[in-house]
Structure formats: C-alpha cells, structure tokens
C-alpha cells in the first residue's frame, strides 16, 4: 500500500514558522494557511487593541507596467485607475459581461505607468489571464515567489516603523517602494481589518527574516501572530465584503452597495452596459447588514432570512462579533428598497428563528487612522 498522498495545496514560505508556534493550519483558497494560533478571540483582541501579524501569502501579487497600463486597467476594472496618484491605492472590481462581480482587488499605483495588483487567491489565475489577454505593450508579471505580510492594529505604525522609516509618512491607501535585505519591498498603508495597518510584499527568500524581525519589533507592543479566522471576523465587523461569498458573479456592484467603486462616466469597461440596464430597470436586491438581538443566535452563510414569515433572502457571511457580543451577518434581501436600517427580520439559525435588526455597516466604528 502506498501511503504517499498528492498534496493539491500550495504552501506559504512561512509554514515552518507557523508550525513552530503551534498554529492550526487549514486549506484556504487553494493554500495551506494558518487559521489560528492562540484562538480567534485572543487574536481579534490583539488587532483591535494592540497589533497583529498576518501571513497573507496566499493572495496574488501582480505587476502591471508599460505605456498602456492605464488603458488596460480602465477597460477591465470598474473604478477610475487613471485618477490614482502615484503612491496611492484604489479599490476596484472586475466584472463579467452581465455586470456580476468576478473579483475585487486593490490597485496600487507605484509610478506613472507602473501598477501593483493584489487579487484574491482563488482568482489569481483568472485575473492574470484576463490582464494578459488584452495586454498589448504591457508587462503583466505574476510574483508567485513573493510573500505577503500584514501588520494591523493601533500600534502597527510603531511596529513597522521600527524596520521601515517610510511607514511614518504613509497615510491611508498610501504605498511606497523600499528594500529589505537587498530585496524589493512594497509597503502599503492598507488592510482588511478597519484598523491602522500596513501590508508588506517582498521575496519569499526574505519571508522568514521579515517575519522574525516584525515579531521582535512588535514584542514591546504585545503583537500576536494572527490567523485567517480572526481576519474574517475583523473584516465582517467592518462590513467588508468577501469575494466568493458576499460578492459573486450573479450579483452586481449596485446590489452589493459598491456603486462608489464604479466610475460610470470614465468610458467603456467590462460590464458597464449591464450596470446601466440594471440601474434603469431598478436594482432587485441589496446587500444588507443584520445584527442579532439574542446573542445565542449566531448566523452563518446560507441561513435563511425571513420577514413576516416570508423568505426574503439568505445570509452570505455571518459570525459572532466579539466587539458587539452578538451575532452579525450580511445578506442579499429582496426587494431592494424594503429593508432600510431599523427594519426587523428573522434569521433561521439551524431551525431556530432569531430576531435581527437591519443596520448599515460597519457594525463597529473603527475608521482607519
């Protein structure tokens, strides 16, 4: 009998470091990634109160460079890439021809004709393929050999600033290029937690050293390694949608409440005509936030949402919020104009209906500083 099993998962360059500190590893987006270390509640508290260190190497890292880079991004993405100043970042969406969301991603402008894109792990192949299909005179370079670390929390500037002086000058959505151990490093004032935070991209060969130096720099500030479990709770408290759950190919940005990331007046882009048709006809449903009234009811994805006993939608993301000490959720509800903040609905939590109130996210007020 052959005990060897093919491993379909990709591995972070920091796997040894995670195992050394007892991380619980699990599959995520085709990778084996740390889900938690000391526990989701402890890691959530570290980020909200001090600082947390995340390995996010499963996410994509793509350079787009050349004289046609702006035009390429303008024709594919929803937001106005041409308006991004060098040294700044912008949230963007990639749609299908029907206006559905195939991907959401951050676009960093490093220079006039140089951009750096960070797509989700599950969509990196699709995003790279889509960019290259229209990339006349534009280089699209995918960095599979890079690591990606995030430092998030109120003390993150002090932690990262110990290693990189550039951190002190970056405002929210700012980005700078520097070096670490003679390797190129992209340093961004971005994150997915709602806290002050930084994200660092560099060669996998430097990953271990960067991780250890950040751990050492964070020791005076009680920094903790944090897993993707805590990150999911943190992002949901902020009402940040997750691609593949809250954002899907059969839902448009207008339904998801992301019209602010769609520059209709910039000219043609993929899915624009479908959005114009939907806007004229009326948006059929909207992504809404829900707060459970009884802390015993914890909503999860695919739980039904009802109003006056009638099915009106289902949960796309749900969890227990440590900050609110009760369950929170997001989900698409129909009709779109019926469920305003303050409206009451019920969520069927494993056969038990719990009362919930519609709110406008974020659930927790933690605006980046």
Structure in words:
The structure is a single chain. This protein is an alpha+beta fold and 369 residues long. It folds into 3 domains: 143 residues, Gyrase A, domain 2 (2-Layer Sandwich); 75 residues, Aminomethyltransferase beta-barrel domains (Alpha-Beta Plaits, 2-Layer Sandwich); 76 residues, Elongation Factor Tu (Ef-tu), domain 3, CATH 2.40.30.110. 20% of the residues lie in helices and 33% in strands. The protein has 8 helices and 20 strands. The strands form 4 sheets. A 6-stranded mixed beta sheet has the order 11-12-13-10-4-14. It has a 6-stranded antiparallel β-barrel with strand order 15-18-17-16-19-20. The longest helix has 12 residues. The chain is globular and about 65 Å long. 46% of the residues are buried. The mean pLDDT is 96.
What are the SSEs and their pairings?
Elements: E1 10-11, H1 15-20, E2 24-28, E3 31-36, H2 40-49, E4 52-55, E5 62-65, H3 69-76, E6 88-95, E7 101-111, E8 114-118, H4 124-133, E9 139-142, E10 146-152, H5 156-163, E11 175-180, E12 183-188, E13 197-203, H6 207-218, E14 224-226, H7 228-237, H8 272-281, E15 286-292, E16 304-307, E17 310-321, E18 326-333, E19 344-349, E20 352-359
Parallel strand pairs: 1-3, 4-14
Antiparallel strand pairs: 2-3, 4-10, 5-8, 5-9, 6-7, 7-8, 10-13, 11-12, 12-13, 15-18, 15-20, 16-17, 16-19, 17-18, 19-20
Helix pairs in contact: 2-7, 5-6
Query: What value does the average pLDDT take?
Result: 96
> What's the total number of strands?
20
Q: How are the strands ordered across the major sheet?
A: 11-12-13-10-4-14
Tell me what the CATH architecture of the largest domain is.
2-Layer Sandwich
Tell me the strand percentage band.
25-35%
What sort of overall outline do the alpha carbons produce when their principal axes are compared? globular
The ordered H/E elements are EHEEHEEHEEEHEEHEEEHEHHEEEEEE
The biggest beta sheet reads: 6 strands, mixed
* Rg from Cα: 21 Å
Distance between the termini: 58 Å
| CATH class annotation of the largest domain | Alpha Beta
* Total tally of structural domains: 3
Which residue ranges are poorly predicted, with pLDDT under 50 across at least 5 consecutive positions? Answer: none
**CATH H-level superfamily title of the largest domain:** Probable tRNA modification gtpase trme, domain 1
What is the CATH topology descriptor of the largest domain?
A: Gyrase A, domain 2
Number of helical segments with 4 or more residues: 8
How much helical structure, as a percent, in the residues? 10-25%
